[in-house]
Amino acid sequence: MTEPLIQLSGVTKAFAGVRALVDGALDLYGGEVTALIGENGAGKSTLVKVLTGIHAPDTGSILIAGKPVSVTSAADAERLGITAIHQEAVVFDDLSIAENIFVSNRPRGRFGTVDWAKMRSEARRLLHELEADLDPDLPLKSLSIAQKHLVQIARALSHDARLVIMDEPTAALSHREAEDLFRIVERLKGEGRAILFISHKFEEVMRIADRYAVFRDGAAVGAGRIADTNTEELIRLMVGRSVDQIFPKIEVTPGAEALRVEGFSHPTEFDDVSFSVRRGEILGVYGLVGAGRSEVMKAVFGITKPSAGRLVVEGQPVRIERPADAIAAGIVYVPEDRQHQGAVLKQSILDNISLPSLDRFSVAGFFNRTRERAVADALAKRLQVRMSGLDQLVENLSGGNQQKVVIAKWLATEPRILILDEPTKGIDVGSKAAVHRFMAELVAQGLAVIMVSSELPEVLGMADRVLVMARGRVRRTFTRAEATPEAVVRAATDA
């Protein structure tokens, strides 16, 4: 049997007495992709930081090619051939592509000065290897997220990396860009490099990985070959219990029409978009990056203004010029970017939940803090927010719990129509299940839910109808029975 290229064993790490890693173990093989799987808080990030020298382990060992090594700094990791490509591209926007690739190992000339010609030449060679048609002198700020990922991969190759860590690398990529990334991963495997691939998307894990390692509560709880397992088993290992129903759909007979959008258009984003959603119904909105899904929903909520079209709420035409008008009409929007648009990270859970509905807690000019706390506490408990208390800062919550707080914030306004834009993006399977259960409960209570999602299993599992968009237009609307994966993808790719 092939020996692991890199081995971690008995690794522990504690912060202020709280153990983030408990006897962590991980084997990584050259020429293979190992998927690191676990819920938020499982210890994945701490493990990556140990590997990259950001955190020194309290106990345990790291072996490379069978020899013990010390990784106490980023420079150590770099010297040993360990590099990481993060979900948020770690690059310098005002520097050129070549400068970013060689930011820590610039080639030097005879007198110790930077050899700019050699740096550009080597950058061009590395980009050519990745089939990236980019000018090394271009500034990073002119590139797309996918292109910035390519620059990070080129940087890894410049160090002759033996281990490349990819942390949620496809989170902000289109379907085509993700396919391009997967081809590069295959090339890196062919060169004998070890790949540690971190993703919440099981379809990616099952497709790209050769092996898996599952962590739960800071400890390794399972590892093996992908060919010998399945999604259900991986989920069971992650959450410590069997998940019989990933998408807990409750069958509800839809009621009256809650919202109708007629002929919505925008000069650059979308054209002639029409749809409706009824009380007690989940309308799934699917499309690839650039389809115009989020842009339409922002116009419905009053963030942007359409050039044409009208809205009808429960049979009455409404005019929405700004979000306050939408909230007054019973429409709320949970944005995709929870950290920058959805939550105020420096404020408490309590303050975030009550922020858009402060008038509900004011009577005759007096603010009822007791009622505010009671409403926030009830919503936090219903959404199973893992917290030390309502006064905990949102920035100290995991991504999944931040998302639950954002949803709770808008539910506090008692809406009739709830728009969820990528409600489970980047959160773990346990948090996803909690959000899905709550969505099912809301429609059972008569709310109308519009769920924008790029995760096809989520759309097919939760939606009563599926509206598919491509290039800013509605291509087709499917009933639940008609919405097969093949049919939906065919419509979304405009095939």
TrEMBL record:
PANTHER family: CARBOHYDRATE TRANSPORT ATP-BINDING PROTEIN MG119-RELATED, D-ALLOSE IMPORT ATP-BINDING PROTEIN ALSA-RELATED. Keywords: ATP-binding, Cell membrane, Membrane, Nucleotide-binding, Repeat, Sugar transport, Translocase, Transport. Belongs to the ABC transporter superfamily. One of its GO terms (molecular function) is ATP hydrolysis activity. This is Sugar ABC transporter ATP-binding protein. GO terms for cellular component: plasma membrane. Gene3D superfamilies: P-loop containing nucleotide triphosphate hydrolases. It is a peripheral membrane protein. Residues 6-242, 250-491 form the ABC transporter domain. It is found in: Cell membrane. It holds the Pfam family ABC_tran. CDD domains: ABC_Carb_Monos_I, ABC_Carb_Monos_II.
